[in-house]
Amino acid sequence: MKPHGARRFIRKVLEFFHLSTTSSKRAVKARSNAKLWCATTTTSPLCISAARGCNEVELDSQVDDPPQYTISGSALEKPVSTRSQLECRIVKLWKKVWLGLYQVDDNEDRYHVERLEALSLGAGLTRTYRVGELQVLRRHFLRSETNNGIASLKLFQGLSLSTLLSVIHILEAYESEIDNLRLLYSILRSGQVALHGAANFAQTAVVRTECMAIAEPMEKRIRQYDIRMNVVNMDICDEAMDLYERPRGEYIYYKAFPNAW
After folding, report:
1. How many CB atoms lie within 10 A of CB 112?
2. Burial letters for 75-101: b for 16+ Cβ neighbours within 10 Å, e otherwise?
3. Is the pLDDT of residue 255 over 50?
């Protein structure tokens, strides 16, 4: 081989090994960058799997009690179960409704309906016990009658998510009436008859009209909520019987007021 031909051959060989080395380094760096991206992009569902690596993805349709997740070998804190969140929502919502519509204070036997009656008499309105005077609010906790609305609501372990969501849906309907009750308080307080003054029949008629415009449809709605709540209470007991031979639930009242024992 001629000298210049040998030099050309050696240069080609060196260029080949240089390119191969560079390509190998770039590939290693690319793979390293890909692993680093997968480890740091924790918000991407493609990099999260239950007890698996980043290259495998498992979509878990069971949202009730999610498993513990790992990212590149590092365990993450287990999310709060959906059932626990719903039960907590039920207790808080139930407490708001109970104190907003029924019992004034959990430590004393005082009820909104009794206060409304006193204010009605103070405004010159007589009790006629007809629709619109909120007889549906005459509900004390654990009264003996069967149709007891939210007062007899219990929770059992293992209730389905659909059942818990049904309870929340009804409680939110009750909750929507709290502002109407506050409005009734405002109307009745502003219409109180003076201590030494005679009742103004025109003013009394106005107060009655304003109250009935709120109380009558409110009475009908709450009665419908009670009917639906009684059905859900029945379904809850049936579901608990299917889960346990001797189901032991807990009244929401005692969950909302743990010191009431």
Report:
1. 20
2. eeeeeeebbeebbebbeebbbebbbbb
3. yes
Nearest to 232 by CA among 143, 157, 173, 168: 168
Q: What CA–CA distance (Å, rounded) separates 132 from 28? A: 79
Position 139 scores a pLDDT of: 82
Greater pLDDT, 188 or 201: 188
- What are the pLDDT digits (tens) for 120-150? 988 888 766 666 778 889 887 765 555 578 9
Rounded distance, CA 84 to CA 159, Å?
11
Q: Whole-angstrom Cα distance, residue 180 to residue 219? A: 11
The predicted structure's pLDDT at residue 3 = 54
pTM attached to this predicted model:
0.66
Q: Specify which residues 74 forms β-bridges with.
A: 71
Give the Cα separation of 113 and 133 in Å (integer).
9
In order of 5, 9, 42, 147, 208, the CA distances from 174 in angstroms are 96, 90, 41, 16, 24
- Give the Cα separation of 86 and 89 in Å (integer): 5
Six token digits for residue 16: 């080949």
Would you say residue 89 has pLDDT above 90? yes
